[in-house]
Design a protein that fits this description.
Helix content is 33%, strand content 15%. It has 297 residues and is α/β, with parallel strands linked by helices.
């Protein structure tokens, strides 16, 4: 929740799907060290009537992208939040472990739309007061899959172009290599522009403000992060195709390439069926402008 407004769009989409009864939001973990990321998340949660959702932030071995944000600070100041900066919030690893430990076995879907430091730290974690299981065993017992927005496909070999895999490339390599259950990779969204309909929502909508502050006069933004969330909640929608052959090879600098061999039992590449781009974009726009079912007081 820092450099790009589609982070805010992804969280709005998740709240809308939860309001429709299609998902239950268990927790939100910021992956950025930008100081206003956590209170920005909390402000959006507050708007959607879920002000008490657990929120975590990386506390160790994290890398600062120095990307900054055109919107997070302003959104964070729009309501009174529990945490004024990221420093005030709990450790994301503890939030992950506590949240997972409380859920039924094989019930949780994790979706990441940022750096992978938190995922790596979860896998490195050991037994604690929340669970006697180490990170990989806890994930294997509780999670169905991880949906990971990151990389470009079939390959992305230019280290100069920004991407989620590159802020903390060592964490990306380790997380993608060691994740013990299914991980679905998505780099989709370049050609699907959404957010233009947010002007139909109230001016106080923090997600509308995030897009306006980020985009200026531009009408919309590519839909990388919302697409990952939409798939995470609606994996059986007719516009997805899952490529199960091969694996995602992550290079040391965070660039990547989908390779046909060797085949991985856990890696899946998400694709959109030909001709479905418009339907995906329409679905996202209709959800992110959906009025909250319950505003927080």
């Amino acid at each position: 929740m820092d450099s790009d407004c589609d982070d805010a769009g992804a969280l709005a989409l998740l709240h809308a799907l939860a309001d429709r009864g299609e998902a239950k939001i268990l927790a939100v973990a910021a992956s950025s060290l930008y100081r206003s990321s956590v209170p920005c998340i909390e402000a959006i949660n507050h708007y959607y009537g879920r002000p008490d959702l657990p929120i975590g932030t990386p506390k160790r071995d994290a890398v600062d992208s120095h990307a900054g944000s055109k919107y997070a600070g302003a959104i964070a100041e729009s309501v009174a939040t529990r945490w004024k900066t990221n420093d005030d919030a709990p450790d994301a690893t503890e939030v992950y472990r506590q949240t997972l430990a409380l859920q039924p076995d094989r019930s949780v879907i994790i979706v990441s739309v940022g750096d992978l430091t938190n995922i790596r730290n979860l896998l490195r974690s050991g037994p604690d007061a929340h669970s006697p299981l180490a990170g990989p065993e806890l994930v294997r017992r509780k999670a169905i899959r991880w949906v990971c927005m990151g990389g470009r496909y079939p390959r992305h070999l230019d280290p100069r172009v920004f991407g989620n895999f590159k802020t903390d490339p060592a964490a990306t390599v380790e997380a993608c290599r060691d994740w013990p259950v299914e991980v679905v990779f998505s780099g989709l969204g370049d050609n699907i522009f959404t957010g233009s309909r947010l002007k139909e929502t109230p001016p106080k909508n923090p997600v509308r403000r995030a897009y306006e502050l980020y985009l200026g006069k531009q009408p919309a933004r590519p839909s990388w992060d919302p697409i990952a969330v939409l798939y995470a909640v609606r994996p059986d929608a007719p516009f997805w195709h899952r490529r199960t052959e091969g694996y995602n090879h992550i290079f040391y600098n965070g660039t990547n390439e989908w390779r046909s061999e060797p085949d991985s039992p856990t890696h899946v590449l998400l694709e959109i069926v030909p001709g479905a781009d418009e339907e995906v974009g329409r679905s996202i726009d209709e959800l992110i402008i959906q009025p909250p079912r319950h505003h927080a007081p």
